[in-house]
Amino acid sequence: MTKSQRATCCPAAAFPLQIWWLTISIGKNYIGGQWVVGGAGELAVTDPATGALIQHQALADAADVDAAVGAARALVNSRALSGLRPVERGRMVRRMGEFLLLHCDEIARLLSRESGKPLWEAVIEVEGSARYFEYYGNQAETVEGRSIPLGDDYFDFTVHEPMGISAQVIPWNYPLEMTARSLSAALATGNACIIKSPELDPLSCAYYALAAEYAGLPAGAVNVLCGHGHHAGAALVAHPGINQVVFTGSVQTGIAIGQAAAANVVPCVLELGGKSAAIVRTDADLDNLIGNIRWGIFFNAGQVCSAMSRVIAHADVYDRVVEAAAGLASQISTGPGIEREQMGLNMGALVSLGQRDRAQGMVTEAARQGARVVAGGVASEQGAFLTPTVLAGVEPSMNIAQDEVFGPVLSVIKAHDDVQALAIANGTDYGLVAGVFSRDISASMGLARDLRAGQVFINEWFAGGVETPFGGYGKSGYGREKGREALWNYVQTKNIAVRI
């Protein structure tokens, strides 16, 4: 998502969901076109802002995973999706995005309650999700092979075929948008998909099953399961019947998933987080920087893999950056997300009390190591809230400068020149995104060249969009999502050589 996206909902749905249909679907699993309960019981999904129960969610077990793989395999074998003319498949994919926009308001309200994010942020996520289906629906008929000249005696050409079954393990920070990112590209290229929704906020993912039905996709093309990672998730990624895995989450879990998939020689796309840095040179527009800090670290309560978690400021502007960032943080209010309909200086809850306590614990440890808390760092007595936090005096060796917080915590680090700033920026195990703030485009481009990150923003954090490839270096994972590059995750190339 970008800060330029609209924060207004679409018009009232022309095709409103019937209440009885919504009642039987939200909170259940969806396998082969049928709503089913899970074999592992159920869990209570609560609002992290208030602790109030929203809905019980059925939990899948290994048998449910088997059933989903069977339904997906039947779809693959039938060629009911992969055998379509690509433009027809693309139209179905685009209609899934249309469904999301038609039901934007109700989806956003459910998402806001289960994830804790402000309602206006939830609207942005729904609209951003719809954009993926629009983009990849339009890309469906552009995946073309090529002919290879071998002389007059041969006709040789390539075709791109779907991988088959794509298993997609979704993170809780953007349950709708991260699903859309992988699901749209996989369907556009003719794959069957099994979505493992996040346990903390799984409810809104049910709308993808409803969207698939609205779009006319055949049964088995979209399957949605919720289950614990160590149970349903582990059974899915290690299943011998799947053909590809997409995962976004922690490094430790990503390593475990990669190992499980490798046992079956199944390729993975892994996005494993970051500790992203913005280098601020002496000639930077500081007003622009502060505006970007608001979006870079305090949007979604900092629960963003590509968050601007470190600002590396030149010594000449360091104090001004710290003061301005602290001033910004002090202006941002916190409260229940469902009450915050208007875009502004507000922030919702973190996704859970555990996530809040982890983030606050890292702030406390940073202070113990010598950092100064110049704003925020206070957890609420009720609800999973942590006030927007700015830390000054952070040294590159501190844990807070090396480890991902996944919360609204900004570390400001001092550098004396570009060489030192670059070394600090590259001095972690991660390499997801990075940024440079400077009026000198030549210096910025030189830093962009040397930054070890899969995406570099210059003068605007989160620049780009669905069209631009995204993925990491180092322990931020491998593979690329978004843009045309993502299409190649879901196809394999076959060469056909004909002796004439």
Protein architecture, described:
By secondary structure, the protein is of the alpha/beta class. It has 2 domains: 19-272 and 477-497, Aldehyde Dehydrogenase, Chain A, domain 1, CATH 3.40.605; 277-464, 3-Layer(aba) Sandwich (Aldehyde Dehydrogenase, Chain A, domain 2), CATH 3.40.309. It is 37% helix and 21% strand. It has 15 helices and 24 strands. It has helices at residues 19-25, 62-78, 86-102, 104-115, 119-139, 175-188, 206-215, 229-237, 251-262, 286-298, 318-331, 353-368, 399-402, 418-425, 441-450, and strands at residues 29-31, 34-36, 42-46, 53-58, 147-148, 154-162, 165-169, 192-197, 222-226, 244-248, 268-271, 277-280, 310-314, 333-334, 346-347, 372-375, 389-392, 409-415, 430-431, 433-437, 455-458, 473-474, 477-478, 491-499. A 7-stranded mixed beta sheet has the order 16-17-18-13-12-20-21, with helices on both faces. Strands 9-8-7-10-11-23 form a 6-stranded mixed beta sheet, sandwiched between helices. The protein has a 3-stranded antiparallel beta sheet with strand order 5-6-24, with no helix packed on it. Strand 17 (389-392), helix 13 and strand 18 (409-415) form a beta-alpha-beta unit. Helix 3 packs antiparallel against helix 5 (119-139), helix 3 (86-102) packs across helix 7 (206-215) and helix 5 packs parallel to helix 6. The longest helix has 21 residues, at 119-139. It is globular and about 70 Å long.
Short overview:
The protein is an alpha/beta fold and 500 residues long. It contains 15 helices and 24 strands.
Which helices and strands appear, and what pairs or packs with what?
Elements: H1 19-25, E1 29-31, E2 34-36, E3 42-46, E4 53-58, H2 62-78, H3 86-102, H4 104-115, H5 119-139, E5 147-148, E6 154-162, E7 165-169, H6 175-188, E8 192-197, H7 206-215, E9 222-226, H8 229-237, E10 244-248, H9 251-262, E11 268-271, E12 277-280, H10 286-298, E13 310-314, H11 318-331, E14 333-334, E15 346-347, H12 353-368, E16 372-375, E17 389-392, H13 399-402, E18 409-415, H14 418-425, E19 430-431, E20 433-437, H15 441-450, E21 455-458, E22 473-474, E23 477-478, E24 491-499
Parallel strand pairs: 7-8, 7-10, 8-9, 10-11, 12-13, 12-20, 13-18, 14-15, 17-18, 20-21
Antiparallel strand pairs: 1-2, 3-4, 5-6, 6-24, 11-23, 16-17, 19-22
Helix pairs in contact: 2-8, 3-5, 3-7, 4-5, 5-6, 10-11
